[in-house]
Amino acid sequence: AMFLVYCALEKEPVPMSLPPALVPPSKRKTWVVSPAEKAKYDEIFLKTDKDMDGYVSGQEVRETFLKTGLPSALLAHIWALCDTKNCGKLSKDQFALAFHLINQKLIKGIDPPHILSPEMIPPSDRSSLQKVRKV
Questions:
Q1: What are the EF-hand domain coordinates in residue numbering (predicted)?
Q2: What is the DSSP letter of 10?
Q3: Which one, 16, 41, 89, 108, has the greatest CB density within 10 A?
Q4: Nearest Cα residue to 83 out of 60, 116, 111, 112
């Protein structure tokens, strides 16, 4: 806040909203997957979840993932990152994160991280993962 006050005192324009770099970590965007992306990935998920159990297995997503043209090793790494509970299946949110990471690589050339940052963890997984970390 003081930074913006000093900017105003220096006659610099004060932005209507905070630039991302000035947003405190606790208040930053809650998830890297935008609502528009999530809606698009949810549609793909519903078509991919053949047994309608709310999860997709590696077998169910294999063809969809391979169609992206990314190397199998990279897709396996993305799967491992997104399978936050190490259960061998992805929930709808985890699937959305996987597709977000795939598209980041395909569209922007951004490699997936080695570990998920806090804003990458699907909101539905955050409370259970925090409990595990505290134990």
A1: 36-71
A2: T
A3: 41
A4: 116
- Global pTM value: 0.74
Contact yes or no for 120/97 (Cβ under 8 A): yes
pLDDT, average across residues 5-20: 82
Of the given ranges (3-12, 25-34, 49-58), which has the lowest mean pLDDT?
25-34
Three-state helix/strand/coil letters over 48-87: HCCCCCCEEEHHHHHHHHHCCCCCHHHHHHHHHHHCCCCC
Rg (CA), the chain: 18
| Residue 45 Cα distances to 50, 68, 97, 109, angstroms | 9, 15, 11, 24
Angle subtended by helix axes 58-66 and 92-103, to nearest 10 = 20
Residues near 103 by Cβ (< 8 Å), separated by ≥ 6? 37
Round the average pLDDT of the chain to a whole number and report it.
Answer: 88
